[in-house]
Amino acid sequence: MKVEQIYTGCIAHAAYYIENNGEAAIFDPLREVQPYIDRANKDNAKIKYVFETHFHADFVSGHLDLKAKTGAEIVFGPTAKPGYEATVATDGQVFDLGNYKIKVIHTPGHTMESSTYLLIDENGKEHGIISGDTLFIGDVGRPDLAQHVIAELTQDKLARHLYHSLREKIMLLSDDLIVYPNHGAGSACGKNMSKETTDTLGNQKRTNYALRPDMTEDEFVEELLTGLTTPPGYFPKNVLMNLKGYESLDKVLEKAKHPLTADQFEVISERKDVIILDTRNATDFAAAFIPNSINIGIDGSFASWVGEIVSDINQKIVLVTESGREEECMIRLSRVGYDHTIGYLEGGFENWKKAGKQIDSLRRISGEQLEQMLATEELSLFDVRKQSEFDSEHLVSSKNIPLNQLNYNLDVFPKDKLFVIYCAGGYRSMIAASILKQNGYENFVDVSGGFSEIAKVTKLPKTAYVCPSTML
């Protein structure tokens, strides 16, 4: 049985494609659905089903557009209440796909409708499970997201559901089954996922902390809930879009693909309800940018950082991109529900400069330059990495302000003396720098290579702290 994993690294997401005897199924598709349609066309297959493991929080699924374009049947697990036509399966229900069978296993815990799909080949042999956010490689789905949509679904209640789902449904399955999860390392839907994106269930039973057979329910709940960070603010909004429905991506892009001259861009960007999102790399942005721009580079975890930094999912956005990457940026914004791009700077930043418009810049220094500066002057140091990264190792005397908390801690940064910001490699600190600039800060420098460069090229004093395993 061939299961094709279609992995998108920037949001650590895995969709799956299965085909047999001219019939295809897609599991947990992204919003841009043409690649799935093209894949089925390559096999001369019709997409019969779109299976959803749950109402996703970290991305907007493409199930509705796939149904509209192919006539595919959308399938959710038990208890789901979608606001559109879809099949809500019963626990144990079997769907035929050519000579394959797909069995629904209701596994509440991450969410109440969460379901795992058991894949059975043409010979009746159980091949694997598409586990959604119920079971990851090295982890399980966090149970604290649904309470942001339905208050009575507390994290304790869902964690206990997950304990029973794993032990009464998943752990009873054969060790040789292949686990196909919805996410890998880097996703905010778990806390300690492996970089591997598939494994055997048997190995997970041996190595995954959440599948220890001697765990009591209370022990499971305590371990699962310890160390969870606050979920990104856009998560509940994506859940509601996936649950209630959304505008087709084609219409979203039609409104977004609006080229603006420098003059037009200048007028629109001065509106209070519009933000300028510059998606160029940190080096180019620092050298010259349009005043009041926010920099979130497209070549990174772009969508998730937009979701962390831009609090309003309905925010109107105008884009500054590298030439030819305008549509890519629009699509990646819409993956996480930011559907209100209203135009882009035609010809990119070069056209802005050619038009003689006002520009701004940011000062960046190397790790060696930081070492030299600290030898002669007193500087405040701010580390914008995650707390877990900071706890692992950081510069002595630096203060940790995680990037996703920056907007709530602006008063911590001094306005009367020079300070330094850094992250791991310069991507996140440039996002932070653009936010600080937007808020009137001028007296700071950014370390271009981040802590990774500082650790390699300097002898600045560093401190390390090994976190207890429950904090990982």
Radius of gyration: 24 Å
Number of helices: 16
| Largest sheet: number of strands, sense, barrel closure | 6 strands, mixed
Tell me the distance between the termini: 36 Å
Name of the CATH class of the largest domain: Alpha Beta
CATH architecture of the largest domain: 4-Layer Sandwich
Question: Low-confidence spans: pLDDT under 50, at least 5 residues?
Answer: 465-472
Q: Could you characterize the architecture of this molecule?
A:
46% of the residues are buried. By secondary structure, the protein is an alpha/beta fold. Helix 9 links the parallel strand 14 and strand 15. The longest helix has 16 residues. The radius of gyration is 24 Å and the shape is globular. The chain has a six-stranded mixed β-sheet, with helices on one face. It has a six-stranded mixed β-sheet with strand order 7-8-9-10-11-12. The protein has a five-stranded parallel β-sheet with strand order 13-17-16-14-15. The protein folds into three domains: 234 residues, Ribonuclease Z/Hydroxyacylglutathione hydrolase-like (Metallo-beta-lactamase, Chain A, 4-Layer Sandwich), CATH 3.60.15.10; 108 residues, 3-Layer(aba) Sandwich (Oxidized Rhodanese, domain 1), CATH 3.40.250.10; 108 residues, Rhodanese-like domain (Oxidized Rhodanese, domain 1). It is 30% helix and 22% strand.
Keywords:
Oxidized Rhodanese, domain 1; six-stranded mixed beta sheet; Mito_Persulfide_Diox; metal-binding; 3 domains; 16 helices; Metallo-beta-lactamase, Chain A; 472 residues
